[in-house]
Amino acid sequence: MIWQDIEIEYKGKKAVVKPTIEFLNYLEKSNYSIYNVVERLVKQTLPLSWAMQIISDTLEFGGIRGVKPEDVIEELGGLNAETIGMVTKIVTACLPQPKEPVKTDVKKK
Questions:
Q1: How confident is the model at residue 101 (pLDDT cuts 50, 70, 90)?
Q2: Has residue 98 been placed in a domain?
Q3: Structural domain of residue 88, as residue ranges?
Q4: How far apart are CA 9 and CA 3, in angstroms?
């Protein structure tokens, strides 16, 4: 499998999302790309507004309706380890997983 499903829980409800092109376009409607989010996560400069929007968009796409970014802030308590973990889980699931290295019998001289 190249991509992995995204499963997140919010207030006892579970959202399951396949990271399809439709989902990526849905996330990127907020004027940031998945790669920008990854870069900001690595640099530890992810804005709170981006994190909350990504989580609420994923919940909405996964069938949990009516969750606004403000609701996510209230529930998760802002930009903390849990929030960063959720965003990381979402964006890494949208990236292709690396293939296993090809094994060869070539020996170095």
A1: low
A2: no
A3: 6-11+21-93
A4: 19
33-52 average pLDDT score: 93
Among 60, 54, 52, which residue's Cα sits nearest to residue 91? 54
Whether 76 maps to a domain, the answer reads yes
The 3-class secondary structure across 17-63, one letter per residue, is ECCCHHHHHHHHCCCCCHHHHHHHHHHCCCCHHHHHHHHHHHHHHCC
Q: 3-state DSSP call for residue 91?
A: helix
The number of folded domains in the chain is 1
pTM (global) more than 0.90? no
Residues 6 or more apart whose CB falls under 8 angstroms from that of 62 comprise 6, 8, 15, 16, 17
CA distances from residue 25 to 22, 29, 44, 71 in whole angstroms, order as listed: 5, 6, 24, 23
